[in-house]
Amino acid sequence: MLFNYQIIDYKITKFPMPKSFHMSPEEFRRQGHAVVDWIADYHSRVESFPVLSRVQPGEIRSKLPANAPAHGEAFDQILGDIERVILPGITHWQSPNFYAYFPANASGPAILGDLVSSGLGVQGMLWSTSPACTELETHVLDWLVPMLGLPEKFLSTSSAGGGVIQDTASSASLCALLAARERTTQFASNRKGCDGRLVAYCSTQTHSSVEKAVKIAGMGSDNLRHVEVDRNFAMRPEALAYHVELDIKAALIPCFVCATVGTTSSNAIDPVREIGGICRDHSLWLHVDSAMSGTAALCPEFRFINDGVEFADSYTFNPHKWMFTNFDCNVFYVADRKHLIQTLSVLPEYLRNQATESGAVIDYRDWHIQLGRRFRALKLWFVIRHYGIEGLQHHIREHVRLAQQFAGWVRGDSRFELAAPARLNLVCFRLRAGDHSNQDHANQDQANQDQANQDQANQDQANQLLMDRLNGSGDLYLTHTKLDGKLTLRFCVGQTNTQARHVERAWQRIQQETGKLGNP
């Protein structure tokens, strides 16, 4: 028998070696194969599941035991409960019939890269805690700059810039805002806090994460200006300039502008070049959020979305949305890394090390909010190497083609209308309203105005009912927004395995359910 030896009262006492509850390498190998087989089987049959989960609130928890198990359970039983308990509560984001929100697509190489990352268990807060974690990330993000046609100032090999992987675009926007805050105040707000005079700007269509960032940064939501948009839902540069001038006259301090390339509601593209000129004239930090649409720039013909990005102080996009890299993986670039690092760097004694002190390495702990960080670059590296630029371009082009085909079907059906330009892979559409809603309300008497309001309410109700029926069928999943105050359906093509037959079937189901509604 093996024994442990402990010193008790200066005497050596023998105790039996405790039993190990860890999974042995042999058991891990066996069960690991079972898990990979299960994932492969899931992806092969995901199309058979209702896309939107049908469980009721509390239903999943009701299937779980009230207390944690006192004794370990067989792994086969745990994996079996994935089928019994978990799958009914899954909305299948990897279904080719998922058209809601924006995609969070995955792929085989990304999943395997994530598995390797988990297996290595790296905490890459410092270069010294795993040099490969840092250097691979820096190098892969440098790959992406020419792949996307971005300005060379974002390369780590430039004199000042560089990129880092964040969890989400929300975190990237917060980091950009913090760096803008400190640059504007010459880093005084980090020491003294905000004085209520700093002002940030975004459009009325900008993602809500910017408003949250303004709150977290201590600038206050009252100091966030929501700039008006044009008929295509893009920020109006003249309106931005007006707000900036107004704030300057009020003795406030403009410091940050977020321009969006591909808004969530309609995929609108803000005029970054014109916005950039205003930012340059007033020394404002320009952050460009291209979370979903940025991936399209892999294809040269879609790089119109990058027009004016050379003015940006920071830029972000999400490979976990449309680049087949499973969640979470956001890429965030800065033109001048010293502002970001000086804003976020805190160096306690226990993190000091020779490599850091030398200044020859990147410590990514200074590039984002959290200290700890996963080895996310592995899955992005796996994806780029597996697909190559050619393979990535092929699938992006096919998604855009399918979305454009869907938009053409909408245009050709008199019952529907496009609610916004469909320039890439998002189509915003809705059932048409009655005749009154298209009249000039300013020239109507009260009775006609009331009729127009009722027509609008009827249109919204019909579109809501159509969406509810489609989602309830399990055949596909759509989500909605409001554009010009009208409920609008969103159809986003971007899931990894969506093919022409899926989009064709979706349009057939939309037509079928519309026919059941009668005349809206």
- Let me know the largest β-sheet: 7 strands, mixed
How are the strands of the biggest sheet laid out side by side? 3-9-8-7-6-4-5
Q: Please state the structural category.
A: alpha/beta
Radius of gyration: 26 Å
Question: Which superfamily, in CATH terms, is the homologous superfamily of the largest domain?
Answer: Type I PLP-dependent aspartate aminotransferase-like (Major domain)
Following the backbone from N to C, one meets helices and strands in this order, namely EEHHHHHEHHEHEHEHEEHEHHHEEHEEH
Number of beta-strand segments: 13
Which fold does the CATH topology of the largest domain refer to? Aspartate Aminotransferase, domain 2
The whole-number mean of residue pLDDT values reads 92
Beta-strand level of the residues, as a percent range?
A: 5-15%
- The overall number of domains is 2
3D structure, described in words:
The chain has helices spanning 25-45, 59-62, 75-86, 108-120, 131-148, 169-184, 188-192, 209-216, 237-249, 272-282, 319-322, 337-344, 354-358, 377-411, 446-473, 500-517; strands at 3-8, 11-16, 162-166, 198-203, 224-227, 253-260, 285-289, 314-317, 330-334, 416-418, 426-431, 479-483, 486-492. Helix 5 (131-148) packs parallel to helix 14 (377-411), helix 6 crosses helix 12 and helix 14 packs across helix 16 (500-517). The strands form three sheets. Strands 3-9-8-7-6-4-5 form a seven-stranded mixed beta sheet, sandwiched between helices. The chain is an alpha/beta fold and 520 residues long.
